[in-house]
Automatic annotation (TrEMBL):
Domain HTH araC/xylS-type: 448-556
Organism this protein belongs to: Epilithonimonas vandammei
Transmembrane segments: 382-401
Record-given protein name: AraC family transcriptional regulator
InterPro entries: HTH_AraC, TPR-like_helical_dom_sf
Length: 568
């Protein structure tokens, strides 16, 4: 008997171990299908969703957070990345794992920084990540948080504080990259080392420690000479060396290095450093090839116009353009770049209070406004055209922002409804069969009989009959309207009308979600299908029950199926 118990315990141990290994292998197998794809590759998303569904089904928080991180990485749309990052934070909080919470906040901060260049909200997220990583044993995570906080500090002009934090990261990542670790860990730590080195160079240059900056660049490029996997990091250092040559008035040496750094920066969509390279290329070419110099200056403006983002370091770009076009008596372009410089200063004054008093140079706001007034008086027809274009631009921007905001809201409501539908499908609850209040009805047997008859009524989809009244239902289940009304109010907490409408809308919603043919029905046809008399009533009830209009749900469902390539 004792031997049998020992055998059983041993059997259970190996069974649990094998099951655990199988689960782990399952997640690894799914990730292996997409983990080597490029960033923002839509082809990865179907497998990512499968990974997320598996993690949800098995309630594994660590894998679910990983799934949402992968969704962030492979989703090409910036706002989708934010939505997935919010899901990542929600799951992390439910796990009560501080490391996961820190990682989730860090991920959202990186999106604000890299995809939107919104440094203040990025810093807010990094500070939260730092708070949850204080007691972590994961030193890689802790230094990754410190690194990203330091990046924002450097951008805001706190170069001394940022340099101290980058030095911590530099020391840590260099030490870890020389340890006997998994190849992926060595790669991540090596990349962390070179990124920290680059940021240290930026800080030292802005602190006027030029010899220290040059020394760090040479160290980095020397190490990268034998490495093929860090093309972007090499471009950052080539950019730094080109800028150093510019400040040493070695323009012939600066130009090829700056040009050489551009392809990888553009490929990575790093418009922060791309704009800096264009600026220094323009300055290096200004005396020898003014046309190409102006072309590079105009590319800086294109980045500002597209992303509403500017690096304070390149503000002089607009002063040079204004001087050039004033000298050449091109009033239209002088006015345009004056307006742009005002917009740049407005942005800088709003987001960079620490820097604003140090970057105004020759063109302070007062003188710019005086020159703007003079230019407008000398060319009134140009002014009217500018005003018209500005008005149209603002109108277009307003309509565009409103459209994007509405689309974001519709997408959020659609995803909430999808979660609800998935839950209902898994639990087989298509309608509200549970009693929600304690019943005041005296006959328990009669109440149970009504409940059973209602279940048959719902199962047979008899609620889809048009014009169905409470009298019809009372007769169908063998009771009277007074008793049935009392039953609905006492047991379900709703009126008969509310009950019937909810049944019908839940029914048609499941058809739309699970059978593609119904997505091509008209609203009136869908209303007829579930027993609702008019399309207006159907639309109103669909929105009340689901929180989204039927036409928006249908549109989003079609987009989702097209993305999954389930329809053409």
């Amino acid at each position: 008997m004792v031997m049998n118990k020992g055998f059983l315990a041993l059997f259970l141990f190996f069974f649990v171990h094998i099951l655990s290994q199988k689960t782990k292998t399952g997640f690894e197998e799914i990730r292996s299908r997409y983990e080597n794809l490029r960033k923002n590759d839509l082809n990865a998303l179907p497998d990512v969703r499968e990974y997320i569904k598996k993690a949800k089904r098995e309630s594994v928080a660590e894998q679910l957070v990983q799934g949402y991180r992968d969704a962030v990485f492979f989703s090409p749309k910036e706002y989708d990345k934010l939505i997935y990052s919010d899901s990542m934070i929600y799951v992390a909080f439910r796990s009560r794992d501080n490391d996961l919470i820190s990682l989730a906040y860090l991920g959202k901060g990186i999106i604000y920084y890299f995809n939107f260049k919104k440094f203040k909200p990025a810093l807010d997220e990094y500070l939260k990540a730092f708070e949850y990583s204080k007691n972590t044993k994961d030193e890689y995570l802790r230094h990754k948080v410190i690194y990203h906080m330091a990046v924002v500090k450097s951008y805001l002009g706190y170069y001394k504080d940022a340099a101290e934090q980058f030095q911590q990261c530099l020391t840590f990542f260099e030490g870890q990259s020389n340890q006997e670790l998994h190849p992926n860990e060595i790669f991540n730590n090596t990349r962390g080392y070179f990124n920290s080195l680059h940021q240290m160079v930026v800080c030292q240059r802005n602190l006027k420690n030029f010899s220290a900056a040059d020394s760090l660049v040479n160290i980095g490029l020397s190490k990268l000479a034998t490495m093929d996997d860090f093309a972007l990091e090499r471009s950052y250092l080539l950019k730094c060396k080109g800028i150093s040559n510019y400040y040493n008035q070695n323009y012939e040496g600066a130009i090829p290095l700056l040009r050489q750094s551009l392809p990888q920066l553009i490929k990575a969509d790093d418009f922060y450093w791309t704009s800096v390279v264009y600026f220094y290329l323009g300055k290096s070419l200004y005396d020898t090839n003014k046309e190409e110099a102006l072309s590079n200056f105009e590319k800086v403006d294109s980045i500002f116009s597209e992303h509403h983002f500017i690096v304070p370091e390149v503000r002089e770009n607009y002063e040079l353009l204004i001087k050039h076009y004033r000298k050449n008596r091109n009033l239209n372009k002088e006015l345009y770049y004056t307006d742009q410089l005002l917009a740049v200063d407005s942005l800088i004054n709003k987001d960079f209070t620490f820097l604003s008093s140090r970057i105004h140079g020759e063109y302070d706001t007062k003188s710019l406004l005086e020159k703007k007034e003079y230019l407008e008086k000398t060319s009134s027809r140009t002014l009217y055209l500018v005003i018209l274009l500005l008005f149209l631009s603002i109108l277009f921007l307003f309509l565009y922002v409103r459209h994007r905001k509405n689309e974001k809201l519709i997408l959020a409501k659609y995803k909430i409804l999808q979660q609800k539908l998935n839950t209902q499908t898994e639990n087989r609850h298509d309608v509200i069969l549970v009693e929600t209040r304690s019943s005041n009805i005296k006959s328990h047997d009669l109440s149970e009989e009504i409940l059973q008859n209602l279940a048959e009524f719902e199962e047979n989809k008899e609620f889809t009959k048009a014009g169905l009244s409470m009298s019809d239902l009372a007769e169908r289940i063998g009771t009277n309207t007074t008793y049935l009304s009392t039953y609905f109010n006492d047991t379900k907490g709703m009126s008969f009308k509310h009950y019937l409408n909810t049944l019908r809308i839940n029914y048609i919603t499941h058809l739309l979600n699970n059978d593609k043919k119904y997505l091509y029905y008209t609203i009136q046809a869908l209303a007829d299908k579930c027993g609702i008399s008019t399309r207006q009533s159907f639309t109103t009830l669909f929105y009340e029950v689901n929180g989204i209009r039927p036409k928006d749900f249908i549109r989003k469902r079609l987009e989702e199926l097209q993305e999954k390539k389930e329809i053409q």
